[in-house]
């Protein structure tokens, strides 16, 4: 384990004991086998308990876990016939936000997502999943392509935010995101978004104006990072845990605020402890959503999307 | 007789207190008579620096006198997250802002006329929580778009905002999608949308409606950008040029149609609007006939 969270320690200890038992035990002995099964069960239950009781700030740590599956893990586990399509036709090809044709259990679709890396080298190449304007413009190009091919769009959201750099400002980061928000609103094919890790503000929303927004149970989605919020409103980043609490960034909070449509339950111990199980849960949930959305006529779909986003927000009249 | 009416100058009316005879320009530090500054539409007579205007001052110098009809004025924040930060609850901040500005939200919306041409306007007010985009702001801007779409009247937003309102968390982020959905609906109905970016237009407001006008106009020197200067400097570990994220910088990179001095804003808007439907937009009837559905 390259990084262990304080709250995971009890489970880690149990797991160590379990491993030891497995290695040393006589596999033929039914009593030991029963003991192992018992311990296994306890371990799962403990994990479930711990993960159900995480504070928002702890959830942020899980959402950013270095072993959490990234987009290309999911592509390998969930999709077939992936054809990556490059470039925004204006400036370049962003490696932090990628996309292409993909097939999900026979359902042909356009897959678009933030692409984080799993090691420093990979992350440098992919700019830690923080896209520049050319990434958002490529995403929009692919969504229009999906419209042309009459296939639905699936986006995977996992970014700390849109890249805050000089070059990104020069090439119109704000305009690129704004254009996506505007054009996604009237796209004529169904859009499903899954927040798999970090949903970082405008950088996340830039591919997140969807008919159905799903969220993994330990993912977070926020208008600003807890660190950013703490340094502005508390004038000290040390207040990040309080900011995380106040901002209501967990899947549960977002479901109750009506911002997301469904929570996808992660395996006990988080998606990073069992990539395959996480992928299967996402697959099932996405297919269920598409089955519903593909039955809706384009005009009605657009009208429903408009109504959905028009209803966002709470105010006094 | 020119083909458009000569511009009307209606100076912002603001009482000058006895002890406030002098004003100091924030840009060139020149001391000028406060009344001169106000008569000059809050623009420094020495260097041309554009100071901020509040929403009603803006409306006063943009719309024909007596034509503004306010809409949705009762919409106000409700503290959906029960947000509390280091300085106290959000609900208290809202009450302070309401008392100070006599506004219910960070935007004033309604209809009016620019040299006789009908428009729907949304005017942001930076004094109300930094002009931040909250749920109420988004609702008003979107409702105004719906009205403009129904009436087929050109839609103008004057932005002045630091960005999304953190105190409303994810709901403030969603206002970006909500307001852009309104713009998308206008695009489909072929109703023109003019975005006027004033100092400052940053963060979630620049990354939503402010940047997707059919025409984007800015005032000279306005701060316009996505990420904050400090955040960028920390990310790239470099000092940024002085003109970074100014209206002039944004124009140079192709995201603005023009930069217009405040004294010329009304006449420029009128000239642009006069092209709508090839000039037959003077009356609503003519506009309707000329536009495609």
Structure report:
The complex is a heterodimer of chains A (317) and B (293). With 317 residues, chain A is of the alpha/beta class. Chain A folds into two domains: 6-53; 59-310, 2-enoyl-CoA Hydratase, Chain A, domain 1, CATH 3.90.226.10. In chain A, 49% of the residues lie in helices and 16% in strands. Chain A is built from 14 helices and nine strands. Chain A has helices spanning 9-24, 30-52, 56-63, 71-78, 120-125, 133-149, 166-170, 173-184, 201-205, 226-234, 240-247, 251-256, 275-293, 298-310, and strands at residues 80-84, 97-104, 107-114, 153-159, 191-200, 212-216, 220-222, 262-264, 315-316. In chain A, strands 1, 2, 3, 4, 5, 6, 7 and 8 form an eight-stranded mixed β-sheet that branches. In chain A, helix 1 (9-24) packs antiparallel against helix 2 (30-52), helix 4 (71-78) packs across helix 13 and helix 6 runs parallel beside helix 8. The termini of chain A are far apart. With 293 residues, chain B is of the alpha/beta class. Chain B has two domains: 11-49, no CATH class; 52-288, 2-enoyl-CoA Hydratase, Chain A, domain 1, CATH 3.90.226.10. Chain B contains ten helices and 13 strands. Chain B has helices spanning 34-39, 55-62, 90-101, 135-151, 169-189, 203-206, 229-236, 247-252, 262-274, 284-290, and strands at 22-24, 31-33, 69-71, 76-77, 84-85, 88-89, 107-114, 117-124, 155-161, 193-202, 215-218, 224-225, 258-259. In chain B, strands 3, 7, 8, 9, 10, 11, 12 and 13 form an eight-stranded mixed β-sheet that branches. Chain B has a two-stranded antiparallel sheet with strand order 1-2. In chain B, a hairpin with a 6-residue loop joins strand 1 (22-24) and strand 2. Chain B is globular, with a radius of gyration of 19 Å. The two termini of chain B are 34 Å apart. Chains A and B meet through helix 7, helix 8, helix 9, helix 10 and helix 11 of A and strand 4, strand 5, helix 4, helix 5 and helix 6 of B.
